[in-house]
Amino acid sequence: MIAFARDGDVHNVWWTICFDRKFLNKKFDDFRTFTIAQFVAGSCFGLLTWTSDYVIDPVAAMGTIIPHVMAIVPAILWTALRKSRNYKLLETIAVLCPLPIDVTGVFIFDRLHGGAPYEPAGLLLFLLFGIIAYQGFSLVINIIYTTCVISIPHIVALLFGIDHFPHLRFAVFAWPAAAMTIIGQTMFALDYYRRHQLQLQLERESQTDPLTGVHNRRYFTPLLEMEVNRARRLHHPLSLLIFDIDHFKAINDTYGHSCGDAVIQACADLCRRDLRAIDVVARLGGEEFAILLPGTDLRQAVSVADRVRTSIQDAAMQIGANAPVRITVSVGAAECGGGLGTASDFLKRADDQLYRAKGGGRNRVCAESEPEPQARGAAAVPVAYPSGRP
Predict the structure, then answer these.
(1) Helices 10-19 and 21-48 meet at what angle, rounded to 10?
(2) Rounded distance, CA 104 to CA 106, Å?
(3) Are 185 and 142 in contact (CB under 8 A)?
(4) Are 186 and 243 contained in the same domain?
(5) Is 35 domain-assigned?
(6) What is the rounded CA–CA span in Å between residue 348 and residue 325?
(7) How many whole angstroms separate alpha carbon 338 and alpha carbon 144?
(8) What local confidence, expressed as pLDDT, does residue 317 receive?
(9) Considering the entire predicted model, what is its pTM?
(10) What span, in angstroms and rounded, lies between the C-alpha atoms of 343 and 163?
(11) Which of 35, 44, 49, 157 has the alpha carbon at shortest distance from 95?
(12) How far apart are CA 274 and CA 231, in angstroms?
């Protein structure tokens, strides 16, 4: 816990491992196969424990076969629900399934002649099962299960007048074991949380450009495909801007690569300042950037593009002791439209407009004037917007 306290708010850690639905759903999906396998194995073990009844009391054991058959219920349920996304239902089943077996265990040992001495050890197997099989669930579910396992035998024995139940002996064994079980479950939960945070950090680093802090091509490419499919499915507009820095090689040659890096960083910062939270900025490589604009048609996208271009043009970038550096960018814009073209086609259309802007004198926005004919396969009629607003 000291390590977690250093890394973040301890309260947030406990809230996450106990109640954060997104975290818990991911955790269960990671352990889904393991959980199902453990419940199936536990059911098989529950059936096989009849042999211990037979060793204790061969005569009375013939009357405990049916209660042992109940052990197959968890295996059947978990096999049937192995693909379910109803996590609340799965958690409820996880808590409730073993408890009837725990209840019948009290009656089984009471029925066996000489079974009382073995009763605490037999019921303690449920605690071991909880540590192994419940790793994919919330820590709260683990604690509820463990508490029920050690409380139910006492409650059943008192309610049904089972005089031979060894309350004191069971408590001496069960309650310390339950405390150790909860400690073990807590350590499992904290360990998974730590691994989950490391995984998220690795994902962020793999999808983020280290120089600018914006997304990189690895993140942007699948996102573009997803947004194109969503826009066409929901009939929402979607536009894409591609821009790069004019004469960037000259900046590197004149001022050095450190100045070039600072210019790239400044462009990324200006883009983030001028865009909405739902817009996505990505560095595709070198000095080339992409801006994805959900819910934005081509006319609006051109306006956004010109605003970004103007902000960069007007910014005087002081790089060390050098004189302020002023830069410009060329921008290509395209709208997704409603055809069958792929995300790669959409990206190429915007990239084609970028090359038109560069070929037309740079420091300008070029866009397709009619996105719909392009989506149907007809050639789009391009129109260029020089350095003023359209």
Answers:
(1) 50
(2) 5
(3) yes
(4) no
(5) yes
(6) 31
(7) 52
(8) 74
(9) 0.73
(10) 73
(11) 35
(12) 23
